[in-house]
What does this fold into?
Amino acid sequence: MKGEKIGMSYGRYFVHDKQDISTQQGAIDNHAEKHGIRIMKHYQDISYPRNAGSRPHLQMMLQDLQSEDVPVDHLLIYSSCRIIRDTESNVRTILEVLNHVDSVVLVKEQVTYTADDFKWLTTSLIRPSLGAGF
It folds into this structure.
């Protein structure tokens, strides 16, 4: 529909985390409903440690965004720690995802960033650990 806000959501849960996936998804769904965002698809990496070399659903989200079947306006994430904490192995995927959305909504923090602002935030937080060549 014309003027409709379209979103995708991403969640990550590891056994030792205190923020289970149902808590994350419930908060995301509530935010989306309140702000008139229709979530096309939920992506959830469950039981992958934060320093895993790959998060399969993060990769699937990128592939779906690259297919461009449906333009996505918003990426909804429960909290910044779900995607940018210890992400050296995933940063290129995250930055590529940001090329396909207009904004990133951090539901718990109640903050919305433009994709460009979130790219800056992501790279500035991890750049020291990646070295000058990044």
DSSP finds four helices and five strands in the chain.
